[in-house]
Amino acid sequence: MSELIFLFISSFVAATLFPLGSEVALFTLLRQGFDPAVLVAVATLGNTAGSLINWLLGKYLQRLQHKRWFYFSASQVQKAQAHYQRFGLYSLLFAWLPIVGDLLTLAAGIFNVRPVPFLILVGTGKLLRYLAVVFLGSAV
Predict the structure, then answer these.
(1) Which of 29, 35, 57, 108 is the most buried (most CB within 10 A)?
(2) Shortest CA distance to 84 belongs to which of 56, 118, 111?
(3) Sign of the dihedral defined by the CA atoms of residues 80, 81, 84, 86, in that order
(4) Rounded distance between C-alpha atoms, residue 89 and residue 18, angstroms
């Protein structure tokens, strides 16, 4: 049980702005004989929850856009938000990518992506990623 908690925590932290990989923990537990479906579920849940932290941080940063020191103007943020809502929403399927994925989930919060589509798209991408890790790990 403690191994699954470790997997959840490493997956959670890996999805935030802190650099950490969860694939090693998943692969190690897979090699120890843990049920692959349970590993995928725990890792996906932890990694998606970690991405939600980035989304919340983005929501917080959005509230600061009217401050004098904020780097972008309100019109720049609105223009980027409209563009993101139109073209960028499905980019959240790639939230599993290192570094880029963290920025995508942060941008989703800044650009007011609703929580349900956010969780569905991010969770789907991360699920597919962990399925691929388990598949490749089982083949080795």
Answers:
(1) 108
(2) 111
(3) negative
(4) 23
